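Appendix B. Raw example, untouched.
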Amino acid sequence: MDRNRRDFLKGAGLVAAIAATGGLTVQHAEAAPAKTGQRGMARGLILLTMRRNGEYRLGVKTEKGILDVSQAAKQLHMHAPATMDELLQNEDGPSLNALVGAAIKSRAASKAFVKEAAIEYGPAVTRPEKIICVGLNYRRHAKEVGMEFPGQPVLFNKYNNALNNHNGSIKLPVAVARKFDYEVELVIVIGKEAKNVSEAHALSHVAGYCTGNDFTARDLQLETPSKQWMIGKTPDQFAPLGPYLVTADQIDPDNLKIECRVNGETRQSSNTNDLIFNCSQIVSFISRYITLKPGDIIFTGTPEGVIAGHPTEKQVWLKPGDKVACSLEKLGELKFGLV
């Protein structure tokens, strides 16, 4: 479509975009008036991704229920990002805050609120350009596995195929691995491009935080001839993320209780104040080498209590049928099952 025609349609409030996301389609609600041009991150919100009518949609947790942003935008004739990825990658926070404020006050948007118990979750972020992970980043975890504290953050990666959702499941690749381990982690979500940023300004580039699990096949990671970290870390569904993204203005990321439970038994219990490299240091360090883009996510490391940290004779690896629950203070509980 040429630019003049695109601008005409936008001015008429008739723009509709369709995108493919993991086999799901996403369509914008009609936008009238059009986007004002203000850019920035959302504030004061608890966000989530949900699956409705065969597509991923952006949701906002409120006292009235979960606000279906696309539906509210259509009913109120307002512009708003249709998905979490649009919100982050377009830095469309002001539009979302305006819509949420209007929807809460308006009877016209009442049908856009749904009960949380009735929704199906998607991964909190579904299309990050990059998934970066930090290894060996809790003091007590380094001690339990008998390793020196690293001199700088140790980085590795996952891919989008690993993304998974709250109340989802991981199909264990038992044909190639058998030593499956949990790793509850605080996840940073980038909201503004970060290139060579200082530690003092690093967190101003963060949109929010999520609960995540860096699920791992330890035998693939550590026992193959060349210690294949990538194939041990990024099989399908190995990065559950959610249920929420809580905007950064509400969170002190370096002082949060963090826990993981397996079949109701607490396995990990710590605090992010035990991080070797805190969140501002992590973002600043990565940005020296890699430009962080809005929507990128960073797994910040796991605390003590992983199965790999136990003596060999006490290592009981995860198996099909196990239920895992991960929680971070103020960020919600992430649950998933193993099949």
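End of appendix B.
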